[in-house]
Amino acid sequence: MEEPSLLTRVSVCIGMTLLILFGHLRDWLRARGWDPDKMGYMTEPGNEGFSPLYPNTDFQAFFLRNVYQRLLRCWNHPVTGVPGAEIEIWDRKFGDCYTDTPKILTTKKKFLNIGSYNYLGFAENDGACSAQTIQEIRSGYGTSTASPRSELGTLDLHRELESLIAEFVGKEDSIVFGMGFATNSLNLPSLVDEECLIVSDELNHCSIILGARLSAGATKRIFKHNDMEDLDRVLRKSVIEGHPRTRRRWKKILVIVEGIYSMEGTTCNLPEIVAIKNKYKAYLYLDEAHSIGAMGATGRGICEYYGVEPGDVDILMGTFSKSFGAAGGYIAANKEVIMHLRSMSHGDVYATAMSPPVCRQIIAATRAIMGADGTNDGVRRIKQLADNSWIRYWMF
Questions:
Q1: SS (H, E, C) the chain
Q2: Rounded CA separation 181/337 (Å)
Q3: What span, in angstroms and rounded, lies between the C-alpha atoms of 301 and 289?
Q4: Chain centroid to CA 378
């Protein structure tokens, strides 16, 4: 990860400090009746006398009132069309106050798209994948199963997709979910209990953090981002000391890392992580949300990129909203782990099953990446992504 220059850091700090100082000044004036932005200082219109529905006195509310609202014109642009190499944005008109809801105009502009995670371009409205998805709606299973997987929601499409994903990533079996975020947050609690330890990279995604917090009773430890010495230290200390309450050995230690850390642009040092987890007899949970499909010569993720056998990673997790141009996520592991999740995961037992057209989109994209569709379209897209990444690196 590249460090920002001193000038950049100083400029950002000065700008943020000024916004916060003027924000405190505006709040002080609002409390005394002067409210040019019509924020309604610490009130909810129509709910006077009631306890607030949302916190409006903490820093988050302060930031929303005085910083975010003033910078809103820089983002939250309504998009029209496919997130391809170019993207169209609706024009907006803002009122005199920062709190006014912008009005969407009828005109739009075309921009270069360098912010989407449509990595391989499968999120498109034409081509083989889109044609198969549309056909699935018209003559297949329609748009929804209207049932969880454990009741009436399991289709042959789901079984086909799970077998295909397991083959693609090199595992015995897999299970798919309709939401990528929930693939982490609702499955991690099913893998650990109060006698287990979670060791997590300090920059892991919010879905992993939430999943760890929902793992009631499990002990959590953090190691410095991508610092193998610190990971070794945390594991060694945890193994020596045992459970903090009973001092007994841990029933299970689960190390959680990401293939690519999307906010930092860094990759995990997978070979060393595997060596360390084997040293301390720990299990490894690898989040490949951003690396599957995008890393490795054939898109099989960070394992292929580093030449690590998938069998050396106990649990592989990934999402379909990036390289596959769809939605949802998967967990791939041995059959025993997958059978356990099918009966214990809230994301499988209670959530509505993945939509049939979404299944078909993922199947079509995966087959293209694997070359099972009889074309080299998938390989071409992976190579194009790699070439574009180098170009973008040198340009910016």
A1: CCCCCHHHHHHHHHHHHHHHHHHHHHHHHHCCCCCCCCCCCCCCCCCCCCCCCCCCCCHHHHHHHHHHHHHHHHCCCCEECCCCCEEEEEEEECCCCCCCCCEEEEEEEEEECCCCCCCCCCCCCCCHHHHHHHHHHHHCCCCCCCCEHHHHHCCHHHHHHHHHHHHHHCCCEEEEECCHHHHHHCCHHHCCCCCEEEEEECCCCHHHHHHHHHCCCCEEEEECCCCHHHHHHHHHHHHHHCCCCCCCCCCEEEEEEECEECCCCEECCHHHHHHHHHHCCCEEEEECCCCCCCCCCCCCCHHHHHCCCHHHCCEEEEECCCCCCCCCEEEEECHHHHHHHHHHCHHHHCCECCCHHHHHHHHHHHHHHHCCCCCCHHHHHHHHHHHHHHHHHHHC
A2: 20
A3: 9
A4: 23
Query: In the prediction, which pLDDT does 84 show?
Result: 84
Q: Which two tokens stand for residue 44?
A: 């909810």
Share of the chain above pLDDT 90, in %: 62
Condensed to tens digits (0 to 9), the pLDDT of residues 82-113 reads 888 888 999 988 876 666 678 888 899 999 88
* Spatial distance between the Cα atoms of 119 and 292, rounded to a whole number of angstroms: 10
C-alpha to C-alpha distance for 206 and 373, rounded to whole angstroms: 36
| Residue of 158, 171, 205, 322 marked catalytic | 322
321 is a catalytic site residue: no
Q: Which residue out of 158, 205, 277, 290 is catalytically annotated?
A: 290
**Catalytic (active site) residue 200:** no
Cα 315 to Cα 309: distance, rounded to the nearest angstrom? 12
Active site residue 322: yes
Closest CA to 188 of 166, 202, 204, 172: 204
Q: Are 186 and 350 in contact (CB under 8 A)?
A: no
Catalytic option among 116, 144, 150, 262 = 262
pLDDT for position 183: 97
Q: What is the pTM of this model?
A: 0.87
pLDDT tier, 76 (very low <50, low <70, confident <90, very high otherwise): confident
